[in-house]
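Predict structure. Input: Glycerol-3-phosphate dehydrogenase [NAD(+)], 430 residues.
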Amino acid sequence: MTSRLLVRTFHRMVRKELSYCTLAVGVRSRRMFVSAPRHLRLSVTLAAAWCRGALFWRCSSCRPFSSTLIGFTKMSSPKRICIIGSGNWGSAIAKIVGGNVKKLDHFENEVRMYVFEEEVNGRKLTEVINTDHENVKYLPGHKLPENVVAVPDVVDTAADADILLFVLPHQFIKTICRPLVGTLKPNAVGVSLIKGFDSAPGGGIELISRVIGNLLNIPMSVLMGANLAKEVADEKFCETTIGCRDRELARDLREVFQTHYFRVVVVDDVEAVEVCGALKNIVATGAGFVDGLGYGDNTKAAIIRLGMMEIIKFCEVFYSGSQLGTFFESCGIADLITTCYGGRNRKVAEAFVSSGKTIEELEKEMLNGQKLQGPQTAAEVNFMLKSQKMEDRFPLFTAIDRICKGEMGPDQMIECIRNHPEHIRKSHNN
Ligand SMILES: NC(=O)C1=CN([C@@H]2O[C@H](COP(=O)(O)OP(=O)(O)OC[C@H]3O[C@@H](n4cnc5c(N)ncnc54)[C@H](O)[C@@H]3O)[C@@H](O)[C@H]2O)C=CC1
Ligand SMILES: O=C(CO)COP(=O)(O)O
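Output follows.
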């Protein structure tokens, strides 16, 4: 009798095409089905095949549907993604995410994007994005999918979101996140695409993902890579690295981000992924100084190599447990190279040497509202190195910070790294 009821209920659910229904895979329910008559077992098998993919890894997020006694559960409703930020990278990633979720029925079609409101040619930027589907200020020349909706209020943007993508210049993160405290959906998770650190009390630094995670009380993953926004928006092939420890979430994130031109590799070395993304902006500033001084490609290669060694050393000292392989992912060596050749930090640092203007002046003149991360990250990192008396172990980072602050001339950078600890260590080994 009970088994007939089960079969009837199951068939009714299938007929109604409740595509988010699947079977409970708990031990209890499995035992119940095994002991059921054959016609029921057939139904169970069909259901499992019908829900392939969902059955094995979507179930941890299931909510009971009507009664768990009958062994069915309902998958949580389609997941909603929002994007907190809409600059150059924020808009490029909105193009990818908006395009992908349209094809995925377990994600909501609408992707809200928080836009720091401003007027562009007498119109509100949100209005421009929502009518013309283009962020004319920060990513001109690229259409955004129509399901990307610009919202000027951050709380409205994030309301009901299951996955929040944070992609703002790091200097604004706390101000933008504070209104979100206590407003997020339970079980919401975050992904930081932000490259930078925050200053921590007592002379330290904090990973941006931790700042967000602690403030909003949500688990955080990161996405970093050799991803110059304009090239990504032009759909030129590149790779990216997601740092994520939750396998189920990692699958979702891969679906949300990956395209034929944007290939995702997921690793679980989350801190190292984020540290690479933050520190390479300092090195790119140094590469810009080299370009401004006209020193040539060999010198720039030395800056890139020593920069990579300092990034690895930084992880060894402050984030022990980092894996060497992570530095060979897109977030490591690849991002370092692309930023040292094609990034904004490099470009402004080159002009700093050749023009004699300040970095702040050049940022305003050259970037049309986009923001530099390198000089500020150099200051944050060196504040920490100084307080720990470790500046001599990171002479490149230290020299770049001093140049940005006007404490020494760009031409002195090479003097500071001529006897780099890497050279001395190798000489001693010989
Ligand atoms: N642009 C790129 O090629 C890439 C950038 N990133 C990283 O992504 C993060 C975000 O960078 P982008 O999207 O390029 O931003 P962006 O450099 O284009 O910055 C402009 C954004 O900042 C916003 N903004 C300006 N003043 C603000 C304020 N007072 N409060 C809040 N927001 C304000 C603007 O509205 C705009 O959305 C950074 O950490 C960057 O390092 C990562 C990969 C590539
Ligand atoms: O992070 C970037 C590319 O991966 C962009 O670097 P810039 O901020 O120097 O343009």
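Residues 270-293 form the longest helix (24 residues).
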